[in-house]
Each structure stands twice: as C-alpha cells, then as structure tokens.
Amino acid sequence: MALTGLLCAVLALAAVQIVNAVPQHNKRFACADGHITSNEVCCQLFPLVDQLQSDLFDGGECGEEAHESLRLTFHDAIGFSPTKGGGGADGSIIVFSDIETAFHANGGIDDIVDAQKQFMASHNVTINPGDFIQLAGAVGVSNCPGAPRLEFLFGRPPPAAASPDLLIPEPFDTIDTILARFSDAGFNASEVVALLGSHTVAAADTIDTTIPGTPFDSTPGLFDTQVFIEVQMRGILFPGTGGNQGEVESPVPGEIRLQSDSEVNFPTINSRTACDWQSFANNQAGFQTAFRAAMQKMAIIGHDRNSLVDCSDVIPVPNPLPATAGPHLLPDTIQGDIEQACATAPFPVLAALPGPATSVAPV
Ligand code: HEM
C-alpha cells in the first residue's frame, strides 16, 4: 500500500516535470532585464531584438532590410520537399550561401544573406541561423504598420546540408507550377495567396535592373491591402525597360508587377486563387489573420512544432495602419480600371485617392 502510494507520488512528480518541460503559453517568467516572457530560454532574445532594430533595421524601419529579411524567411523555408530533400527553415541559405545564393531564383538575395551573416558575426549571435532568419523576418515585419504580430518559435537545429536547387518558385513559373511546388511543401492555394500578400511590403531589384527598388504597390512601407488592389488594376505600362522575364505591365509609373502575382488573380488562368486574392482587397483584418497563420506554418517547415519553444513575446507589437491609410484606387483611376477576376463575387467598390496620376517612388 505504502509502496503504491510512493509510486503514485513519483509518477505524479514525473508528470508535473513533463508538463513543465512543454512550453506553456500562459506561463510568465521575469527575465533579469525586466522583460516578461513565457519561457526562460526566450530571455536571451530580447537584447538581440533590440540590436536587430538598431543595427539592421535602421532604428525600427519597414525599409529595404526589413523587406529583404521577410523574403529571406521564405527562400530559406521553401527549400524543402518530401521527395527531393532540403531541410526547410533551417538556415541553410546562410550556412551554405556559396551554393544557395547561386540558384537563379535567389537573385538579389545575397545582399541580405551577407548583411545577416555579418550581423551574426559582429554581434556574437549564438542562436542557430534557422532561428535567426525567422526571428529577423518577424521583427522586420513588425516595423511595418498594419502587420500582424508574427509567431516566433525557437530551437531549430543547425542545417545538415544545402537545399537542392529548383525548389523556390520563379516569377515566370506558370500558376500550376507554383501551386504544385507550394503543395509539395504542404500549402494549399488559399495559403499561397495569403503568403503572396507579403508583396505589400516589397520591391524588386533584379527583374528590371535599370530601376532597382521598384515596389509592387504604391505603399511599400505599409502592410496594407493595396497589393491586392493594384495587381488587379489594368496593366498599361512597364515602369522601366519592359520585356523582362517574369514581368508584366503595371498600372502606374514607378510600380512593377510580377507575372506570377498577376497570374494568381487572373480568372481564366486560375479560378483556384482569384476569389481569395480579391477577398483581401478591402479586408485588412482577414489578410492579417491569414498571413499570420500561413507564416506560422512556413516558419517551421522541416521541423516538429513540439520540438520548439514559443518565444513570440519577444516580437515587437506592430503599429496599426495610420488613419490616412485604407483600401483605395490609385489617383486618377476609376472602378472600371479593375479587371474583375473572381467569378462569384464583384470586386469591392473603392474610391480613388484625390489628385492627378502620380508616379510611385522607389524604395
Ligand atoms: C510564387 C511565389 C513567389 C515568387 C515567384 C516571388 C518572387 C519575387 C521576386 C521576383 C521578387 C523581387 C526580387 C528582386 O528582384 O529583388 C520578390 C520580392 C519579395 N518577395 Fe517574393 N515571391 C514569391 C513569394 C513570396 C513569399 C511567400 C514571400 C514571403 C512570405 C515573399 C516575400 C517577398 C518580399 C518581402 C520581397 C521584397 C524584397 C525586397 O524588397 O528587397 N515572396 N519576390
């Protein structure tokens, strides 16, 4: 009897220890520097986040480095296929940068890979590169007003090998190829649309090299829904030379449009994504929720969620969109400039910004 009681007590203690080993979302831990977090191991990340803000993101801007860091989260993570290999979000793009930055689809990524490598070396960063890339991406996005606060899970092991080539979608891929590649990595068409919303805070350097820093929408410093609106406006011009691989006509000078973004919302090419794309045009909250959920999945490709610790509370809380922002048509355009793509619902009616047509400024 006494032995049974002792056994029960030991088992109960073991159970408590097991439960304690699992990250608890509602637990609070006070770090030595005063930050509160859900798990003690997250404490080391608060100073790192401060350094990222001051030394990589120019004091907390939604600028080029923040945009590039978001792109890098994708280019590291999508390097995974159940049949072709690759470790997903493992930092291989940094550790094996000689191999991976040479992939065609990684054009222009070397700048941020170099910047993050230098940052890690000069700041004596001890976390693994797979964690660092996703942390930097989540912190960078938090600088963009209107963004959701992304999840950050901590504890990815170092990469075992470089990712194989040809796993990263290209802007000149067909929509079928793009959706098949994402599906292979575990994403459905709706999640692809949500992820492509990242092009709301984005610009291209390599599509038309005569006009580096040309944004995909008119508000590249805001995590708003303008990309879903402006990609659906009738294309009338090339902002630079034209005739570049992966580029189609855009609606306004100074703005560039990827062929892939255009195909995703074009009905005759792809009825699977056109209505999802349109649904975000005037739905900031829906876009935030869908983007956060899809990023949550993307950031841990190749890992078991249960092997990681939730350190999301180290990510700064993004500012909301300014009161002056909101879904709109470009100045001097009309509703008829929208190319209806979704077969089952009309595009939302939006007002144009006042004033004459203007060129979009580079990032
Ligand atoms: C079909 C899938 C995708 C294609 C074909 C694609 C293609 C591209 C291209 C060609 C650029 C311009 C690169 C340059 O010339 O500098 C770009 C930029 C960017 N992409 Fe994507 N992308 C895709 C999906 C994604 C996803 C899933 C994310 C993130 C979740 C993402 C985030 C970004 C960002 C933030 C930039 C801007 C980088 C900067 O401003 O420097 N992209 N993308």
- Shape, per Cα inertia axes: globular
**Sheet of most strands:** 2 strands, antiparallel
CATH class of the largest domain: Mainly Alpha
In percent, how helical is the residue content? Answer: 25-40%
List the uncertain runs: 1-24
Query: What's the total helix number?
Result: 13
- Category by helix and strand content: mainly alpha
Here the CATH topology of the largest domain equals: Peroxidase, domain 1
CATH architectural name of the largest domain? Orthogonal Bundle
User: How much strand content do the residues show?
Assistant: under 5%
Helix and strand succession?
HEEHHHHHHEHHEEHEEHHHE
**Terminal Cα span:** 75 Å
Bound molecules: protoporphyrin IX containing FE
Strand tally: 8
Number of domains: 2
The average pLDDT is 92
Radius of gyration: 22 Å
Question: Which sequence of strands runs across the widest sheet?
Answer: 1-2
In quaternary terms, these chains amount to single chain
Binding site for heme b: 199
Cofactor: Ca(2+); heme b
Active site: 75 (proton acceptor)
Binding site for Ca(2+) 1: 76, 88, 90, 92
